Amino acid sequence: MAPHILVTGAGGYIGGSIAADLLNAKEGFTKGTEIHAAVRSQEQAQSLSGLAVNVAHLDLGDKKLVENYLLSHDIDIVINTATSIDRTVALNLISGLSARRAATGKESYLIHTSGLSAFDEVTSWPFGPIKDTDAVYDLESKSKNTYIVRQVDTLIVEHCKASGVMLFMIFPPTLHGRGSGTWNQLSPQIPSLIKAGVKERRVYKFPDSRDAILAHISDIAAFFTLLVNAILRGDRLPEGQDGYYFLVSHEVSWWEILEKLAARLYARGLIDSPDLDVWPSEKVVAEAVGVPVRFAHSMWNASAKITCERQSILGWQPKWNKEQFLSRLDDEIDDFLELGLPKSSLLDSLKPKSAQ
């Protein structure tokens, strides 16, 4: 019987691109797998209806519903891209995978997508530079009370261990490029900067220049396909509290990104000056990009000091680099002008429920 894979957040930027990459696999163990796509709305479900996927308009906050779905469809692997800060969703998925494991005797796997902001000093990470081969779980546990992502990360590790669910923790960086999903095809970060620049008629920067760690969405989707292949092949990989994987393709300073972005927007007549101004306050940043103040710096001036040592285990070789990214910034502008800033589950999850 073909393995069954559930991708949560399949209407989103990362989840949609992963689902598309899995569907397009022409070789390896992912070819012929049954892909299940969990989405939040009927509109997202409709956008996926023409693909060879099992679309589930699934409330991930409903524990019984999630358990029933994973059991009745014999889900082997859940790739969770729906949220990195909602512990209820994560725990419901783990509960469902654990129930399926108990009912069938087969291994069940959770691939959880978190974020490298967990290791940034602006989110009160106290331990400085870190490698994904370090005792990351132990360090996150010691600092979990100061940042929600670390709280959820450690909770997931602990519950997977207690439930016998095999776990892989994936930490993508700031992403760029047009996704290959059917609903949300843009990342919130770069398009939000473009939107803010156009709205304010100039581009702003933070007073300190930090290095952005980046990857193209196509490279990230390719990593997930490699990981699923390795799991289905039966490879012995670091997992559980040892299963942290940092993903980075290239680095470039935020000021350099903004300078080049300002030059391109000015050339199109979309802003009044190619020169950068410093943001007057983080409150102004937050209002411009549409997030609570406490998340503005961590999303648009993030610079975690990390080293990726595990990404090569799977033979992951990113195709994009710094030079390509900077030379293709006009593509980012074109995509934003064509698609606008899509509704983002990531940005929504950062807002109080009363504001959604």
Describe what this molecule looks like in 3D.
The protein has helices at 13-23, 42-48, 63-72, 87-104, 136-142, 148-163, 189-200, 217-233, 254-267, 282-289, 293-300, 322-327, 329-339, 345-350; strands at 4-8, 34-39, 54-57, 77-80, 109-113, 130-131, 166-171, 174-176, 204-205, 211-216, 244-246, 250-253, 277-278, 306-307. With 356 residues, it is α/β, with parallel strands linked by helices. The protein has 2 domains: 4-174 and 216-246, NAD(P)-binding Rossmann-like Domain (Rossmann fold), CATH 3.40.50.720; 181-212 and 251-303 and 319-349, no CATH class. A 7-stranded parallel sheet has the order 3-2-1-4-5-7-11, with helices on both faces. Strands 8-10-12 form a 3-stranded mixed sheet. Strands 6-14 form a two-stranded parallel sheet. Helix 10 (282-289) crosses helix 11. It is globular. The mean pLDDT is 92. InterPro entries: Epimerase_deHydtase, NAD(P)-bd_dom_sf, NAD(P)-dependent_oxidoreduct. This is NAD-dependent epimerase/dehydratase domain-containing protein. Pfam families: Epimerase.
